[in-house]
Amino acid sequence: MDPTTMRSARPVLEDLTLSLPDIALTAGVQRPVVSMWRTRHAGGPHPFPSPVADDAGPPRFRASDVVAWVEATGLGKNPHFAADVAVRGVLDARPGGDRPTDGLLALLCLRSYGEVELGDLSSDEVLDLADELDPEDEFLYREVVALGSSLSTACALADLMASAAYSTGGAAEAVLADRYRAGRADLTRSALAPPALDVVARVVEVVAQADVVASPAPGCGDLLHAVLATPDAVEVPTAMVPPGEGRRLARRRLVAHGWEVRTLEDGDLPPEAVVVCQMPEVGIGDVSDEEVLARVDEVVLSLGPGQRAVVVGPASALVEAASSPAAESARSSLLRTHRLRTAVLLPPGLVVDRSRQRLALWVLGDAHPDVAIEDRWTMVADLSDVRPRGAEFDRAVLDDLLTDVVASLDSADAVRAHSFRFARFARLPQVLARGGSLVESARGLVQVPRDDGGAAAVRVRELVERLAEEMRPVLDVAVRRGAAAPVRDLMLGALVDDGRARRLPGLRLEPSMVVAAPERDPALTRVLGPEELAGDVPWGARAVDRLRLVADHADARLTEPGDVVVTTTPRPAAAVDRDGFSAVVYPAWVLRVRAPDDDGDVGHRLLPDVLAREIAAQPPDAKRWRSWRVRLLPPDQAAPVARALDAVADRAAAARCELARLEELAATLVDGVASGVVRIDRHADNPVGGGGQDVATE
After folding, report:
1. CB-hemisphere CA count at 13 Å for 356?
2. Which residue of 161, 610, 648, 693 is most buried, as measured by CB atoms within 10 A?
3. What's the domain of life for this entry (predicted)?
4. Considering the entire predicted model, what is its pTM?
């Protein structure tokens, strides 16, 4: 560290005290290591410093003593220990004052602008430099003046921070990162976690058409910094920020990185600029969904032809079922502008101080001019069950999402030709008429069907021929090649809403009520739950006394034959209860498929077996059951497929019984022969592997 800078920082170190965890964190070691240093180096030429206070609280040590001891012993893994401790001291609250966040960021801006060591300048020269950079006092001049008599020391400390962070931009980020430790609610409320910032930055990267990014609601600059700092992004060197007291911090942060920042006046939005903003912006208190949508409406109204915007905000306002009629009306008005190209539902955990809140992302662009109003659409992507890995989403997941977003901004022909992974097609007139969740209003885009050349039909015949002979009469049906057709699927939530399936909750039974079930006891009712669905417990192994069930749960509903038993714990699983009359225990629940009407229900059919298979095929993290997609079958194929699947289930059950008997046979033979109570005599003229064994018991 530069000796002059260190001398300027010495008063900070004298006033600062560190706890043992502080020392460990700054030294880059585990907490027990510092305790070991304290014990092992209690004496000798370089004893560990003594605590500055001996009270009932945890011991604290003077920072200057600790720095001198670490430099003398060379222990720890941080070669910049002294600098980092000094930075920590700069950021800690000063006696009788506030944390100097604003002043430090202002000085870091000056250091980046002048490309000089501020400690080499006099106080007057620093003020002149501030006036030169900000003659209208739009973002930093008053903050520099406010440092007063401590300006020289603050300049030396700003140099120290920039040296420790290797750049003024890195030092600025260290200052902003300290907001969480400092409890700065004005800078942390509604702040986005790194994965959310990354996904927004990547989306802006692919939709940007020029080198200008604008934000009418920049907060403390988190989104703008993420966009401008994206390593392989389309270069966006210019940021536009509105004037005002609430925007000064964002401007200082960006200027400290050396980026050009221009003032975003009303009507001064360049047509090539991509707009990015968070609603509500960081630091704003709780706002209603109606307020969020009103601010998004302002963004939409400011967009010119060909202009694009990326907006991130609460999912309750942007995609989920509206919380009030006013919110539903406001969102419908936005949708009628036909500028929403893609809506993305993100998983929970992306808001730092609200781990359960869900975010949604809107990509706005031009309405398709070559598509009639009644035929226009938007794309809706559901990533609610896709969890990020560390500070970002899986790259393959993000790449597929970005290709979906780019395709949604293209022509109608490009949308039809693209194979979407996450995005689903939502026709706007139907969405507006139905209301509710945008995610549940979307359906899969019909792709051009692909003919397999009869491979599937041949494989079915091969499998039938290879199974046991007793299955042939059951599946005595003609299997032939058919014409490929688009797959019809719907979200499970939509199937429940329109009455094709009914959701019944599981029973909350006391654990003492569930007992082991002897075979065929008429006094017991079979119990089904997550254990049975996961295969951890055989079906029928658990039961509940029927009389106690009626006494304690008078409104309990047992399953009917054909009900689908479902759970999302620990992962999505489902199975058809063919016998019925079972008690389903929470957290499992029941889906009851409605039988089609004989007099007019001619649409595609939902089958219990197909429903169970679709649920069991969901990813492990797919816990939002309403967004599960379920395939439907053509009406003329529903009945024969149902009979075939019943036969397959019967054969599978018989196979499981046969496997159980074979396992019992093997175990009995081994135990019996080992104990001498069973002997196997083979006829002398039988070859090895032939028949004719006699099993004799002693």
Report:
1. 0
2. 161
3. Bacteria
4. 0.68
Fold (CATH) for 489-633: Adenine-n6-DNA-methyltransferase TaqI; Chain A, domain 2 (3.90.220)
Calpha distance 4→63 (Å, rounded): 18
Q: Per-residue pLDDT tens for 265-276?
A: 765 777 888 899
Cα separation, 534 vs 443, whole angstroms: 30
Cβ pair 163, 111 in contact under 8 A: no
Q: Which amino acid is at 570?
A: P
Distance CA 388, CA 227 (A): 19
Residue 138 confidence (pLDDT) above 90 = no
Intrachain domains 187-441 and 489-633 with the same fold:
no
Q: Residue 415: which H helix or E strand, with range? A: helix 412-417
For residue 463, what are its two tokens? Answer: 């499998």
Q: pLDDT tens digit string along 485-535? A: 777 888 888 889 888 899 999 999 888 888 887 766 778 889 999 999 988
Find out whether 614 and 566 touch, Cβ atoms under 8 Å. no
Q: Specify the residue for token string 């009303």.
A: 266
> Helix 63-73 and helix 81-91: axis angle, to 10°?
170
Which residues, in sequence order, are CB contacts of 333 under 8 Å at separation 6+?
297
State how far the Cα of 586 lies from the Cα of 531, in Å rounded to an integer: 11
Tell me, what's the pLDDT at 128?
Answer: 92
Of 106, 108, 91, the C-alpha closest to 15 is 91
User: What radius of gyration, in Å, describes the C-alpha atoms of the chain?
Assistant: 34
Percentage of the chain exceeding pLDDT 70: 84
Q: In sequence order, what are the beta bridge partners of 545?
A: 524
CA distances from 454 to 448, 458, 475 (A): 17, 6, 19
So where are the chain's domains?
3-184, 187-441, 455-485, 489-633, 635-698
Superfamily of domain 187-441 in CATH is Vaccinia Virus protein VP39 (3.40.50.150)
Q: For residue 319, with 0-12 CB atoms within 10 Å meaning exposed, 13-18 middle and 19 or more buried, which class applies? A: buried
SS3 of residue 121 by DSSP: coil
Residue 427: predicted pLDDT: 79
Residue that is written with structure tokens 């019944």 in the block: 504
Q: What is the pLDDT of residues 84-135, one digit of tens each?
A: 776 666 665 443 345 567 888 899 999 888 888 888 889 999 999 999 998 9
Is residue 539 over pLDDT 80? yes
Q: How many Cα atoms occupy the beta-carbon half-sphere of 460 within 13 Å?
A: 16
Lowest mean pLDDT across 455-459, 473-477, 506-510, 687-691:
687-691
Q: Do the beta carbons of residue 379 and residue 423 sit within 8 Å?
A: yes
d(CA 237, CA 355): 33
- For the range 71-75, what are the long-range contacts, defined as Cβ-Cβ under 8 Å and sequence gap of 24 or more? 72/46, 73/41, 73/46, 75/27, 75/37
Distances from the Cα of 28 to the Cα of 31, 78, 304, angstroms: 9, 6, 51
